[in-house]
Amino acid sequence: MGDVDAVTRAVLTASRVLVGVSARSLTAVEDKITLPQFRLLVVLSAHGASNLSTVAELLGVNPSTAMRMIDRLIGVGFADRRANPDNRRETMIQLTEDGRRTVEEVTARRRQEVSAIVGRMAPAQGAALVEALTAFTEAAGEPTVPPAGQGAYPLGWADTSPL
After folding, report:
1. pTM of the entire structure?
2. Contact 40, 73 (CB under 8 A)
3. Within a 10 A sphere around the Cβ of 132, how many other Cβ atoms?
4. Which pLDDT score is estimated for 86?
5. How do residues 41-79 score in pLDDT, each as one tens digit?
């Protein structure tokens, strides 16, 4: 590859745009949840009902931090706790219908804004972007986002965990 520094700068610059899109997509629910709490909703959306230690591991946080986030999401009605039917001593955390709807709505806003940005690009630039970003995500080991309206995981995360 050519100039790794130039590619790195371009990716970092583009990441600022994507972080802005992510932040704006949460404006309708920002009085209820934070970006890290939304991330927890996405994890539950992608992986389904999970126990506390799995949630903490998937988020890369300690269990006490995950528990505070879960408590907040339960408080606003986006998640709930249930006993694991296979192990009554274990509690499972899962999305409520409101939590699932929130993930879908925020994702739709993100998709709409990204589509608008991409729509302002020349077709050849869009094709080159698809090729470059596909290579980037493959190098990172990230699954591809399914087309709008297809696939169980609206942000593209596949359920690859052994849950």
Report:
1. 0.76
2. yes
3. 14
4. 86
5. 999 998 899 999 999 999 999 999 999 999 999 999 999
- CA distances to 107, 139, 144 from 136, rounded to whole Å, are 21, 5, 11
Supply the DSSP symbol for 147: P
Instruction: Tell me phi and psi for residue 88, to 5 degrees.
Output: -60, -15
Alpha-carbon distances, residue 100 vs 1, 10, 33, 40 (angstroms) = 41, 34, 14, 12
* Alpha-carbon distances of 105 from 119, 138, 151, 154, rounded to whole Å: 21, 27, 16, 10
Written out in words, the top-level CATH class of the domain with range 4-140 is mainly alpha
Q: How confident is the model at residue 145 (pLDDT cuts 50, 70, 90)?
A: low
Straight-line distance from the first to the last Cα atom of the chain, in angstroms, rounded to the nearest whole number: 38
List, in sequence order, the alpha helices (H) in 48-152.
52-59, 63-75, 97-119, 123-140
